[in-house]
Each structure stands twice: as structure tokens, then as C-alpha cells.
Amino acid sequence: MKHTSKLLALLAVALLVPNAGCNDPLRVSIPDIVPPTALSDSAALATVRAGAIGDFAIAYSGDHPDGSGGTGEGVIMYGGLLADEWINSETFPTRIEVDARTIALTNADVDLWFRLLHRARNSAETAAARYASTAPADPGHPEMLSLAGLTYIFFAETYCSGVPVSTLNPDGTITYGQPLSRDSLLQRAIGFFNTALAVSTDPDMTSLASVGKGRALLDEGSFAAAGTAVAAVPTGFAYKSEHSENTTRQENGVFNGNAGDIRYSVAESEGGNGFPFRSVADPRTTFVRPTGSDSVGFDGSTPQYDNLRFGDRKASIPVATGVEARLIQAEAALQAGDTGTGGAYLTALNDPRTTAASRAYYDPSPGNAGAGTTPIPAMAALTTTDITNAGGAVKLLFAERARWLWLTAHRLGDLRRLIRQYSRPANTVFPVGPYFKSNFPTYGVDVNIPVPVTEKNNPNFQGCLDRLP
Q1: Which are the contacts of 193, defined by CB distance < 8 A and separation ≥ 6?
Q2: Which of 70, 130, 148, 275 is deepest in the core (most CB within 10 A)?
């Protein structure tokens, strides 16, 4: 069976409004605002979908970091900065706070990121409602439901417990929401995915919702249910965020923030506890040290290392994949104790390593042309010896997740799960010890990002419920 990738089309949408006068193209009734009534029928669904997809892509990968001429960063960048995928290679104190794990409630970039993610959530929910009322059988319906579900996962994995979810009403007023715990956010995500699965007749949209549901269940600690949720997802499935150079908003923000604007640098064993992304050669986590002036970051001193997974501004970024489905199944098998030779744990881990589907890790499409962005070769199958050499099945699993899911907004959630679900002390998981910039003498203790102080405009919100992992 052939499973084609569904691409997030980041399109600049031209909205045409009727002329007020037959021969006067400059006279229009509404020159720059499209009222909700103009988007209420099925003919407008493509426009609504494109807007929701664009907002999701900004919240996911961004276009340029704040201060570099774009909208801002996505969760791939700031989540990886708090974790151990990126180190700060520039001068903004707001991002240095995140890298150093000492984040102030007044951090302006955190406020920006929080608003962009809520914008994506609201756009996806609004689009899903439009599809439900006008074209419930259209594949865009489960797609929008799944994107909404993913935004709730990003909130749950990235921010503290207690994220309020408010509603922007058509008349411009706000219905303020109550703070939601991490588990409540995950339950909302699962609800969106369940609805998507109920209405989907498209195999790719079913796979997208299944991977999203499996991820939320994994975060929740429902391991067996997570494995079941993704069992039918083909290893070769990939739903991707597509980028182009048509406009700044459509560009790949991971490439820009790292290789283009040199404000983020690929990390290596950050704080002693970080993952060895650079020192251990692996075709899934390739990078390069630029030459000349770009050999250091925007700050003029931090060594700059550029990822090669996303080699240009046009490179597409995986959002949900069959490889992730196999990793979820491997973790379900690990929890069940099935880690021996021939068992489900090694079978699931080896599926993407040893079959042609492993080549889906890099997208060979023309938009991803460039050094390091060719399909990866098959890799040797893992055995029980690899489990021993890795220091156990848990360490091997999370090492495989670190490689396969690199720069796709999974790492911070995984570090938090290692503490919450596997009883790892926080100071053995997150970067610790002396911090390398003068702003802070040592790394702090943050394991998530706080809800910014501006949310206190919401009368229901008094602050994070807790800062636990």
C-alpha cells in the first residue's frame, strides 16, 4: 500500500473582495479586513485551512528568531534551547535565560512564543469547526482537528502546568479560560484526535491523528494504549510542514534561526548531561562547522554548528511520522518487559533502521536539496548487546528518540518524561553546572517554560499551578 506524505502548504493567500465601482479598482468596501461572514461557507474552506496551516507552521518552526526580521521562533527552537538540542549563540538576554534554565515571568520572547502557539490553536480549532459545519467529510476536517490536538501537546510538553485556554469570540471579546493542568491539556488533545479518527476516511489523516494520539497517551503514561493507537501507522508515513522562499513567513525557521541568523547552535553534551549530538557520528543528526565569519555565532564568540537535517529555507519539517509510531510501540514493549531477542521492543526499533522507510528521515524532494539532506542509508539492526552497551533499554530507547526525532519539538518533552516517568533526577537529565555566558554563573533549575506575566490579564489566572516536570 502506498502512503503519500501530506504536506502543510504554507501559502500566501490572496483574498479578493468585490469592487465598489465597476471601473475603480481602488475602491473596495473592506480594504484590509476579511469579516468572519466572508469565510463561513464551503467555498472559503481552502482559505481558512491555509491560514490555520500557516499559523501552525509559525508556532511549530517559526520563520526567523525575534530580532531577525521575522514573526518569531517556534516550539522546535525554544523547546530545544531549554533542553539540550541547541545552545545560545547570540546576545538576546531573553533567549539566554531559556538556555540557562532561569526564565523570568516577564521574558518578552516567552510572551511572544506563548501568543503564537495560542494563535495556532485558535486557528486550527476555528477551521475544524468550519469544516464540521460545512464539509465534515473533507480530509481537511480531521487534519485541522489533529493540528489543534498537537498545539495542546506542545503546551503540555513545553510549558508549566496551568496553561489557560481562552476563546476569542467573533465580536472581538474574550471568554477567559481556567488554567489547565498538564494532564487536562493532554486529555483535550486526545479528544481532538479521537474526533479526527471518527470522521477521517483518508489514510494519511488517520495516521496523523493516530500518531498524535499515541504521543499524548505516552505523555500521560498510558503506554500500552499508546502502542495500540499507533499500531496501524505505516513506517513510511510522514506528515510534513512544507516551506518555501516565496515570503519570509513561509521560510524554514529552523534553518534560519540556526544556519541563517546564527542565533542558535547545535549543542554537544550540554552541561555534562546533554546528549552527544555532535561527537557521535550518526546519519540522523548531521551538522557542519561553517568557515570564516560564520564559524562563530551572532555574539561573535560562541562556536557555530549548523544542522544539516534542514539544509535550506525550503526544507520541509516532519510533524508526525511512522518512525515516531515505531518508537512509541518500542516504549510500550519496554514498559511490558518485552526487550529480549526477537521481542517487540527491538523489532519496533529496528523497523525504521533496516527498511527503506528509514530513508524518510531526510526528505529527498527538490526543496530539500543540499548537503546532508539525502535519504539516509539503512543502519545495522540493534541487538541485546546494544541494550547492554547503552546502559539499559531505557537509555537506548531515548537515544534512538533523540536521533530520529531531532529538531522536531520532541526533546524537551522526553527530558521531562525521563524525570516524571522514569524517576531520573533532574540534575542528571538537564544541563547543569557552570553556564558558559556571563549572564548567569550556573544553569538554573527550570524544566519547563512559565506562562508569561501578561496572562495575568486573565482574571482566572494567578500563575503556574506548578513547575514540576
Answers
A1: 145, 146, 149, 209, 210, 212, 213, 216
A2: 148
Residue 65 vs residues 68, 207, 317, 356, 431: alpha-carbon distances, Å: 6, 31, 17, 35, 23
Whether 286 is in a domain gets the answer: yes
Domain limits at 364?
43-457
Q: Does some domain include residue 61?
A: yes
Split into its structural domains, the chain has a count of: 1
Kindly report the pTM of this predicted structure: 0.91
pLDDT by residue (tens digit) across 301-356? 999 999 999 989 999 999 999 999 999 999 999 999 999 999 999 999 999 998 77
pLDDT exceeds 80 at position 75: yes
Long-range residue pairs from 363-366, CB within 8 A, at least 24 positions apart, any chain: 363/238, 363/240, 363/315, 363/316, 365/316
